[in-house]
Fold:
Amino acid sequence: MRLGSALLILLLTANAFAEPEISQFFPSQKTLLGRPLLWIIEIRHPLWESYSLTIKPLAGAEIKIVDHQVSQKNGRVHSRYRVQIVPESLVIPDTPSILISDEKGQNIVLAGKAISVESISGSSLDILEPAPPSFQTQRPDTDRARILLLLLLAAVLIFSLIRMFYLKSPRRRLLRNLRKVHHEVRENRYPSQIGELLRSELLWGFAAGACTPLELKEMSGTSSSLRKIADALHSVECYRYSGKGSPYGQMSLLRDSVTTAIRLLQSSSGIWKRIAGKRS
Structure:
């Protein structure tokens, strides 16, 4: 009696030990179209047994085994399967299932969970081509305002460039220097550069730096302004080298000659006068 009970216990224990242990992990049932889901299945069974997996086709999705790992632990075989499910339709009517078979022909059906594919573009079940983009046309008033603004900015830029080059021109520099000299002469101070300024090529139309006042007077021609400047240079040089004349009279003559030079540069006809004087 006791022997029979022991044999029965051993038989039940062996059968229990021989039964495979199956566990699974099924991901979230909600997914998007084309996003893969990984279904993980683990089977632990004795060394003398073997099991195989058969995947049942799934309507509206692609299902396949993408990885299979086998290991041994405590005298048992651990098989780990990774099954990939890729939704190809917005509606998957069936539940994914797998058939596990042993070498004796015994089968175990392992079912997953229903898969819900979420829509991101409405309730339609058809995959449509994207609609062509529509670009909003601008109003003509806005275009005219932008064109006028660009033209205004361009005009301001051109005016600034012209003014910059105009102020840096030799004629403008000579005018600024003559005004400074005129201010000094009015305060009865004798500027050292006044002779060089009154001999400027911009006044005479040629290089007059090496000419004497008498030569400049002869070259002034019919221009009374240039002749006045030449007389002032002659009077100043006579006073500097011979001491003849009054210093106050020299200052008055210099003021008049500098004023004449400034007016000559500012006059639009000064160029023609200088050309006429040069030809004579």
Notes: The chain is about 45% helix and 20% strand. The longest strand covers residues 61-73. The chain has two domains: 17-117, 170-279. Residues 140-167 form the longest helix (28 residues).
